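Chain X:
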Amino acid sequence: MDSNNEGKENNNQLSLPLLPSPTPPSPLTSWEKIKKRTGLTTLLPEWKLMLSKDNIMNDIAAGITVGCVAMPLSLAIALASGVSPEIGLVSAVVGGTVACLLGGAPLGVTGPSLATTVLLSGVAATHGMSALVFVTAATGALQVISGALRLGGLVRFVPQPVIAGFTAGVGGVMLFNQLPRMLGVVGPSAPGILEMVSHVATQLGNIHPASVVLSLGTLATVILLPKVYPKVPASVVAVVGAATLNVVFGLGAPVIGSFPCNFPMPSMPALPDFETMYSLMGASLTLYGLTSLESLLSGSAADKIDKEDLRKHEPNVELVGQGLSNFAVSCFGGIPVTGAIARTSLNINAGAKTRRASMFHVGILGGAFALGPVVGLIPLSALSGILLSVAIRLLNPSDLKFLSKISYRELAPLAATFGTVMASDLVTGVEVGVATALAMQIFRRTTPKLLSTVNEEGVVKLAGDATFLSAGRIEKLQEELEAYPIREDLPLTLDFSGIITLDATAGETIVDMITILEATGHNPNTLQLVGINEENFRILSVCDARDTAAKFIKSN
């Protein structure tokens, strides 16, 4: 290899001199620069798809499905956040509309989040509703600034075990927080798992049997009905059934009560006094981190679910869109919204093809205001059952099984994240989880660098440690490989023989890279993976649930 190529290898830059060079891009015009900086490069094609007649029935069906699930969930999240239930619907309608039009996730669904309820209920109890409006607006402003500064890519450095621990932690906290409503007793004045358990123990003599029956009945319906009738909206059936039983048999379970029939008019958020604003900055920063992380994780999850769709989420556009959503929500007196992982997954699995599906879901939610008196009859215990079903799904044992198959070492960041979330709060949990993962990398003496070079035969050779710290490098490699022509007479060959360590996050990122390259037109004759040792092959096989990458692996 000549000295020029050696210099490129030493600089750790990917260069493919023996492959046909891609056509150099033309200089951007002023209008193209404006579109790129404002996110219109991403949004304009999406808006065009929304105006097309193609796939409209798929979008309508998906929108109705998601709307039927999101309606009782939004009501329940509002109650868990310490505000009246209609605020949950207002937030879902306003935030969902703005994020649908301006967000960076093509098939994402935005609405109130379970993850924020613990913090919001504390703010509402301490400072009142005006403080919630302020932290919602502040969260939106911080998200817009972060997107403009292009900080969205930082989510790549959150390890897969931390994400799994975070998700399970949200489910665990929610499970405990729903105990008072499920039992029909008054909740504790102070937050915390231990406080919740000790308080409920003192209220065992005041349990309302009807509330317990309706809550557990709702939970059973939501879990079991889809197994028999998968196309029936189980959440709606469960809530309507609980309300009917409560009214017909006079069970006396507490209900939502008064519910407005008119959608509120917007107004500028009222600013609290300086001292209160100062005390709320910590909560605002925490909410900003929490909502941003969940929105970006939701976008990443959507990319993995819908592998056939090449329209991937754009994290910086998503941050700006979510920020504008939260500021708009604050003008309607709402609570913070995020890209919702569960609702986004449901939207894709229900057949959504464009952003119209999210708009149809918003229309279903808005229609609830026309049924105000009926909505007011919904028992609080039924909404508790809805949240319990979501919490159980978030406590997903398959993540534990998946990570343990790769290595039991992967369980340490998961356990650290989950334990800290349960004992402290969500953001601290993520911080502790990432710190644990970093400490383990240092202990194992791994390096954050994954090198990619090319030898004289044009084989791309990967060398170093492929961990969560190198996930961004793998994504960059994918973008560079996508730029080259697909040729059977000169296939792309990725040599993994130099990879020393491979973890779950990097394994999933590599599988995603191969999946996307296949979607762009590659086949086993134009793309080959070689040099994969037995241990790394085992890890890739665990990550490759659909056997997508397996067909490209060439025997050593």
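Chain Y:
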Amino acid sequence: MAFGSGKKVEELEAEVERLTQWVAHLQGTEAVALQAETGAARTQLTGLHAEVAAAQRAAAEAVSEEHAARSQLALDLDEASMQEAGFYTFNHPLADAVAYKSALANVQGRMKAMIRAGQAVEGSTTWTVNNSAVAGRKMVKDTSTLMLRAYNAEADSLVRVLRPHTLVSTKTRLDKSAMAIERLGKTMSIRIAPGYHRLRFEELELTADYQVRKQQEKEAERDRRAQLRDQAKAAAEMAAALDKLRKEQEHYRNLLGKLDPGTDPEAVAKAQAKLDEIGASISGVEQRAANIRTGHVYVISNVGAFGPNMVKIGMTRRLDPMDRVAELGDASVPFRFDVHAMVFHEDAVSLETHLHQALADRKVNRINARREFFYATPSEVRDIFSQVAGAHLVEYRDTADALEWRASGSITHETQGPASKTDLALDALSDATSEAYEPVEAHGDDEHPSRHADNDIGDELDDLGTEEGDPTATPTMDTPPENAAPATPALQDTAPQPIPAQWYVDPNDATQWRFWDGQQWTNNVSPRA
């Protein structure tokens, strides 16, 4: 071994040892760092899991709230559609309008008590102004009063314009008003007290209920008065009939007293038979007058006004039931009613009630039970009528004549426009000129009107043509000016002809003539003598 090699080996071994210790040190440091990072990552992961769980819970709550809101919205929309259709559900069913008015007064009294007690609006109790709690409380109180005034003004306005079918939308508006006040007063934690807000809701509901009940009572009173009028007419008719029958009865009694059974037995027998007939009639009228349930039950329809699938079933005590049908077909409907059945019954009230009950699910007006219209065809009512009335139903007509409707051209389901004055007068002129039109003698070369042979027809047509401001008025023949020119030759009587081109009374100024060229008015005018 060369000199010094042992020392070199020792140095190398020492270096290896040093390096080994350094590597060991470095490996330990990285392990600690990695372990620390791993722990931090695990902690962060745990936090993320907690956040995910919280988000999932919040999402589940949101979904639940959404479902609840959708369900409530569906109920509100359904209620709104029912109210718009006239089907109103009372929120606070009470006996009559007086009871609703009393309940409203009670609710308003409770609201006033909450306002006096300072419980109608809530606000912060820790608010300070320049480190002054007293000034803070005063500021909160003043702002709360201002917010409450705004809320009450909105609520009072909604109550004034409330209609039963707008109840849902009105409550929504009041809710939005309360939320807007809460949002604006968030700094001072000011909001409308939930209890006061509920009282305002109850006031809206009671107001809507009161309006509906009041309307129902008005309609009931109107129907009651109509029924009393019908009964009064029936009583007057029966009294007049009895008076007439008694006079006739007295007449035949006198006649019977003057006849001699020995000389004219046949005349006596006829007079006695007539007297017996009159007595039976008097007895029948007296029974009807005494029994208010006696009358006629009718089934009528109006195809032109209500269509083929609607009928009216009613009852009248009038001696002539067609008088009642004629009254129903007055100016309130465009066409007269057609009668499908008219049945006399000793208990007409019960018969009518049974028919109404059998068709209760087809009633047109479900709010006012006195509106006796039903969604049913006459043939469907016949089957029910035959079951209820039995042998009393002698005759029934399934098909409505609807003569006025069919004659009006409405069978095509197209509404005819009103006949214009021009059309009416043109028809009149065509008929008039075809019957009595004579030319006048020539007085010049200009175009001038001719004289109508019938002065009455001319006067009538003159009235038609002298309405002010009607640019389409029909030419009207009248006395021509003195310098009238020859008119168009007389029209033939075979068929109505167009209005001849000549001079007529100006439809806009009866003091002058205007020339009609056969199709329209011209600007040629001439003063009337």
